[in-house]
Amino acid sequence: MARDFGQPxxxxxxxxxxxxxxxxxxxxxxxxxxxxxAEPDDLRVDGVxxxxxxxxxxxxxxxxxxxxxxxxxxxxxxxxxxxxxxxxGPDAGxxxxxxxxxxxPPRLAYTSCNGVEDDEALKRHPVPRxxxxxxxxxxxxQSPFHLLLQGGDQLYADGVWKECPTLAAWAKRRAPxxxxxxxxxxxxxxxxxxxxxxYVRLWRQAEVAEALSRIPSIMMWDDHDVFDGWGxxxxxxxxxxxxxxxxxxxxxHFTLFQLGAAPESLPECVxxxxxxxxxxxxxxxxxxxxxxxxxSERTASRIIAxxxxxxxxxxxxxxxxxxxxxxxxxxxxxxPDLGRIERLVDMLPxxxxxxxxxxxxxxxxxxxxxxRRMVELLAGFSLRTGCRVTVLSGEVHFGARGxxxxxxxxxxxxxxxxxxxxxxxxxAGAAMEHLLGxxxxxxxxxxxxxPPFAETGRRMVRARNWLxxxxxxxxxxxxxxxxxxxxxxxxxxx
Length: 494
Prior knowledge:
Oligomer: single chain
Strand order of the largest sheet: 11-12-13-14-16-15-17
Distance between the termini: 51 Å
Number of helices: 13
Number of strands: 20
Radius of gyration: 22 Å
């Protein structure tokens, strides 16, 4: 691309991404979207001796994505780093983020479900959409987070079937005849415009934009980043050409915006790239962060393809020597068995709206063998290496915790969902509270509990929420749920 030295107009960014630890350096990338072809100036970053040149990522309709890759040295103590474009006008920074001191574990925030299926539902919610983003930023100013783990549904793209006229018309046609219809150019063009615009519009919101510019993210997708139910739909729908095309467009935009990379050139932290997945892994001292891709290979009858199952033991072995592994599973791994409810729903005529959500669960009757395989794999890794495994999840739109004991190991589950999505209503919440109260023996030698919070006696936090995570010098993890309109007193020590 020929370089144009005209003044760039920033329409999104910066979005910070964590790329890993390299010796005493904190590796990051910053993404910007610019209107037009003007190439931005080199980025200036405190502690980085030379200006950081831009790398072209993608262009669409004269909107250009540029990325800057840099590594910041870590001092003995936490340090605030300033970055920006000093010569590019008032909208070009400076911005700031915080790097943890050498040998110190990072302070983490975990979020999920940054949206809702129907935007009208947020208008009925009594608190502003981004109130919890504001609260997260307030915490960040007092005690800075070093990483932001975003566990799924960063984008609610369900509106693709309403806001794109050609796709909406196709979706209204009778099934199964419409599944045999071909893709046309208008469908693809509408989808491209929808996803690009949706990301820019959502991530430009002041509270979200500030968080993305101040805290480097690790992001993994779930179904709403494509559209509701993708991966758990019946095979005929999954194979329909318009549906597949929308998935491929969503996949491209996930790489551009949530990974900050071109689809053909993924960063080194994406371990699953050679298998067509976005599985990511990071080692930070004796802390591991593992984010398996549980959506790219999902069908109604499987969660992970066999080639990725074959790779999992080797990926886990990369964390040997860690004291604690945080595993990001978009759907909770340690959760009650909802199989009976799923079977009842499957008996109803037509397809019930709950069908996709129930089939998404690790403990769906379609995935029971895979669930046990994953549990035994993690328990075996923990027992063999002495590394504790804690699972972080969202998806279910309330906060909770669970513990699975067996195989010589103990695996804790922390659920935080959602930072924007409203919680279930009182009746649904009461039913779920009852289900969470059952102690289970899922298979020989294993028990599963969803313990109540000591502060309330309830097992679920029926409020919008996010999670903060701190690790002390002894390796103990302190998890705190920050719930809307409630005191900050939900704590789990592991």
